[in-house]
């Protein structure tokens, strides 16, 4: 279903994306129990944050406390969303699933078909940040990043600068606020497009050219511009 970095737990903040460190461990999570849940949409916002694994599977990354979904105990973080009202979502990106959920009419019941990750390795503790003990030779410094691409070879690249790292975090927060998704790769692309732009209009033009399918609203683009600007001058 998906992989996590350096933990066997269903921790969607550790979800493997397009980059891994040279000293990271990868844990694979396989399909467990399937379930079908009816949800009454009493609020416009369901309280879900959606992510995906880049291979056609969308997952629940976060559930907001006190939200509509939070009161349905059969639905959990890590669940794969297979279908909404019988419409298969296999092959959909996380933002497409988030949009479908948002467009569901308020005051009606809809059906979610989910698959939870199999529970395993409960006695294994999370790998510590210091790595494995021992005095053997180490390969590299751990400051490199392996970037995985759907097309073309994987490459080892330097880690983002402190400014880029903070800007990516802030833009990722904006993606969750506006779209109900978290996607560090998308956020990194937006920061890369925006870090040398002189004004919001130039950023909007660059986003339309590279990421036009998202149709980002003007207020979102302006907030992204502000987030990148704040990170540049150290306003964290």
Total number of helical segments? Answer: 5
The Cα radius of gyration reads: 19 Å
Q: How would you state the average pLDDT, rounded? A: 78
Low-confidence segments, given as residue ranges, are 122-143
Instruction: Kindly state the percentage of residues in helix.
Output: 25-40%
- Please give the alpha-carbon distance between the first and last residues: 35 Å
Protein name: GIPC PDZ domain containing family member 1
Family: Belongs to the GIPC family.
Pfam families: GIPC1_GH1 (PF25083), GIPC1_GH2 (PF25082), PDZ (PF00595)
InterPro entries: GH2_GIPC, GIPC1-3_GH1, GIPC1/2/3, PDZ, PDZ_sf
Describe the model.
GO terms for molecular function: actin binding; identical protein binding; myosin binding; signaling receptor binding. It holds the Pfam family GIPC1_GH2. The protein is an alpha+beta fold and 236 residues long. Among the domains are: 31-117, Pdz3 Domain, CATH 2.30.42.10; 156-233. It is 28% helix and 24% strand. The protein contains five helices and eleven strands; from the N terminus they run E-E-E-E-E-E-E-E-H-E-E-E-H-H-H-H.
